[in-house]
């Protein structure tokens, strides 16, 4: 079983990952792996690819909450991109979420709202190259696409 690092240098065990397949919204009989759907984009029938199921994370939430964004991304992506190796996912995340692109080691900022006296936070998603929330997806997508194309040929 592999391990992904936490922000403080420790690591958490990766739970056993079930194979994730994706089906088309217009052909539920079609079942493809993540690398195939990333490389293809849209199904031949014009449908979107969606996961057959979603992993249950309820037993892991307290451990996941302790991770910084890159480490959390690695754990979550491993559950959805089950035909990618841990090394491939790590490489994609490390290339996508760099301090050069986001201005800090952690691309997502969680800022406490202390004025309200409650345990509330604001998630800042504007620290990327274009200062927009879409930077989170658009920095990782080319990394996944390049890796998927290598996998499917």
Give your account of this protein's structure:
This protein is an alpha+beta fold and 153 residues long. It contains 6 helices and 7 strands, in the order E-E-E-E-H-E-H-H-H-H-E-E-H. It has helices at residues 34-40, 61-64, 69-80, 86-96, 99-102, 135-152; strands spanning 3-5, 11-13, 22-24, 27-32, 49-51, 109-112, 121-124. A 3-stranded antiparallel beta sheet has the order 4-3-5. The longest helix is centred in the C-terminal third of the chain and has 18 residues, at 135-152. The radius of gyration is 17 Å and the shape is globular. It starts with a strand and ends with a helix.
Question: What's the gist of this structure?
Answer:
Helix 1 (34-40) crosses helix 6 and helix 3 (69-80) crosses helix 4.
Percent strand: 15-25%
Largest sheet, spatial ordering of strands: 4-3-5
Distance between the termini: 28 Å
Q: For the residues shown, what is the average pLDDT?
A: 82
Structural class: alpha+beta
The helix/strand series, from N terminus to C terminus, equals EEEEHEHHHHEEH
The shape, in one word, is globular
Low-confidence runs (pLDDT<50, min 5 residues)? Answer: 1-15
Number of helices: 6
Radius of gyration: 17 Å
Q: List how many beta strands DSSP finds.
A: 7
Determine the fraction of residues in helical runs and give it as a percent range.
25-40%
Q: What about the largest sheet?
A: 3 strands, antiparallel
